[in-house]
Amino acid sequence: MPIASMTDLIRAGEAVAQSGMFGVTNAGAGMVVVATCQSQGISLMEFARTYHIIEGKPSMRADAMLAEFRKRGGRYSMIENSVSRAAAAFEFEGVKIEFAVTMEDARRTGDAFKSDGKTLKHNWAHRSDDMLWARMVSKAVRRLCPEIVYGLYSPEETGDFSQDRGAPSREPVQITVETAKARQQQVQPQEATIIEPVEVDYEVCPVKGSGHEGQRWADMTTECLKDFWDVDELTDHHRDAIASVVKSRKVEGGQVKQ
Fold first, then answer.
1. Per-residue pLDDT reduced to its tens digit, 238-252
2. Bridge partners (DSSP) listed for residue 252
3. Which residue from 26, 162, 173, 186 has the fewest beta carbons nearer than 10 Å?
4. Distance CA 100, CA 217 (A)
5. pLDDT range class, residue 72, cuts 50, 70, 90
6. What is the pTM of this model?
7. Residue 176 · residue 73 · CB < 8 Å
8. Residue 85 near residue 100 (C-beta atoms within 8 A)
């Protein structure tokens, strides 16, 4: 697409929304589609095969994650994909490990329930095998090859972060060329604030009260590293460091050496 200005982006977003082909209904979401294609260097058709727009953000399809994982040399074999459990054995760069997600996990974390904490969401009640598989794939790819999905979640995961979890609802914003120009005119330059950079050692656990604060990832067991992966205090840089430690460990009998 010939996108040379903000006006081009807005008009392209409007065209995408009007087409009805990409699951978006307003120009703002259409702009997200076009901007994602521009940044990733992909076509609109490839976007439709790889992403969904969930609550205004691009989310990567689980099958697209798995396809990219295989393109990069990863391998997997399905162990189970039932309404109660999804499991598969994954292999990447010498690391072999089994990942599993169960319905009990989804109930325990609350992801499967609506805001009342008792009623199952529609997809979890009627398509739990697909929901479990998508979460298991995302979990495995995020841990073994995070460069595929950094900053992105599967549509199934993004849906579980939705308004059912108590987030305030928001009306979709309709963006036009006129409103974009008006906003640009309202923006006033502000005096820059200089912030001194803080050096962070991403090879060290930063989680306070965990019993491992200040301990190097390389000194922890693989099982312990897996427990830390989804902790909110960690950045993507911390997770990259954890992934590097796991990949560097030798494989014995099909399992990661502890």
1. 888 888 888 888 644
2. 255
3. 186
4. 23
5. very high
6. 0.49
7. no
8. yes
